[in-house]
Amino acid sequence: MSKRDYYEILGLQRGAAKDEIKKAYRKLALKYHPDKNPDNPEAEAKFKEASEAAEVLLDEGKKSRYDQFGHAGVDGQAGFGGGGAGDFGDLGDMFGDIFGDILGGGRRGGGRRRYRGTPGNDLQMTLDVSFEEAAFGAEKTISLTRYADCVPCKGAGTKSGSKPASCDMCQGMGEVRRQQGFFTVATACPKCQGSGQMITDPCGSCSGQGRQKKKVDLAVKVPVGIDTNQRLKLSGEGDAGSMGAPSGDLYVVINVLDHSIFEREGFNIHCTVPISFSQAALGDEIEVPTLDGKVSVTIPDGAQSGRKMRLKGKGIQRLGAYGQGDLILTIHVETPTKLSSEQRDLIKRLGELESNDKSNPMSRGFFDKVKDLFQ
Fold first, then answer.
1. What is the rounded distance in angstroms from the CA atom of residue 115 to the CA atom of residue 241?
2. How far apart are CA 129 and CA 140, in angstroms?
3. Does residue 373 have a pLDDT over 70?
4. For position 225, which CATH number holds?
5. Same structural domain for residues 172 and 226?
6. Is the per-residue pLDDT at 68 higher than 90?
7. pLDDT (tens digit per residue) in 285-337
8. Which pTM was predicted?
9. What's the rounded Cα separation, in Å, for the pair 354 and 82?
10. Is residue 59 predicted with pLDDT exceeding 90?
11. Among 83, 155, 156, 222, which is most exposed with the fewest C-beta within 10 angstroms?
């Protein structure tokens, strides 16, 4: 079977630059690496194919011959430099980065950073805030129980005066290597979990874990305009990592409590305003609540229940942006109850007058349609 074009394997155009080749190979290697695809021959084959393509194209001499003669120019020379086992060149440097990513370490400062323990867990909690606190922002204090560094051993996990011993399985390297075909694959040492060290004289307070449960209080800044189910991230405020590993993060999920008057819809707020029958019929100047205090609005004569009035800019400040939502008032005409005899007589008289005029056009129109319907 003829080999596929190396550029095609890496998804590149012929003549691609070295940085493009490295980037393309890294993506494929992370996807198809055997450690991430155990017992998957197809993934292993794609990993080997991509590695062979990258090994040739990252070598200037081989790349030049391949560009000129194709596979015939490099047949018998692919195999990690042709200079003996371990002579990987650029590809070998990339393997270190890729293995580090697969094992969760990555490279920092020129080498894979190892931790003696495991990173701390991310935590999540719910914070109740009032309607006004969400609208205007607030400073809140939360309490939670989380893992923190052990005080007696200062997170080291060892008794005072003692030090960890080098792991006898990996000789302190933090990784073990195994041969897989013509590849040497590095994985985290199962005995020390990649730390390279073993605690032989553990701290009596934390049993060698380097951390303990502790209740803490934290200050949380609630931003202006935040809404229910939005999250705040407090970096490094989750569980402490064991034995010097980094802490996790804390995610605070906001729950905005209901308001007695207002309802929220995005950055707009809604308010139902009850008015009397006489105010609806004759119109009136009334005071209505807003988040900033009371304001006067004019109710036009003949106002109907359900009529909406919009007060621009009287809603909630947009989160992380300029401008505010609106306050939307919904008029509700209230039917009077527990009438006095005088009120009842006046309303009866009004009813008699309504039957002879055109003051209720909606009612007259409705009943005219009903009459036509049954004729």
1. 9
2. 9
3. no
4. 2.60.260.20
5. no
6. no
7. 999 999 999 999 999 999 999 999 999 999 999 987 888 999 999 999 998 88
8. 0.59
9. 104
10. no
11. 83
296 forms beta bridges with: 287
Which whole-number Å values give the CA distances from 193 to 71, 115, 362, in the listed order?
42, 9, 79
Do 256 and 316 form a contact (C-beta atoms < 8 A)?
A: no
Q: Which domain holds residue 276?
A: 263-373
pLDDT reported for residue 361: 62
Is 1 within a domain? no
Residue recorded with tokens 């305003």:
273
First to last CA, the chain: 88
The answer to whether 113 and 175 have CB atoms below 8 angstroms apart is no
Same domain, 172 and 292: no
CB 269 within 8 A of CB 291: yes
Rounded to 5 degrees, φ, ψ at 55 are -60, -40
Question: What is the chain's Cα-based Rg?
Answer: 37
Q: Which residues neighbour 185 within 8 Å (Cβ) at sequence distance 6 or greater?
A: 34, 35, 99, 177, 178, 179
Residue 94, strand partner residues: none
Q: Are residues 100 and 194 in the same domain?
A: no
- The answer on pLDDT for 166 being more than 90 is no
Report yes or no: 54 and 21 within 8 Å, Cβ to Cβ. yes
What is the tally of structural domains in the chain?
A: 4
Q: Tokens 């990690």, residue?
A: 80
Minimal CA–CA distance to 77: which of 96, 93, 89, 61? 61
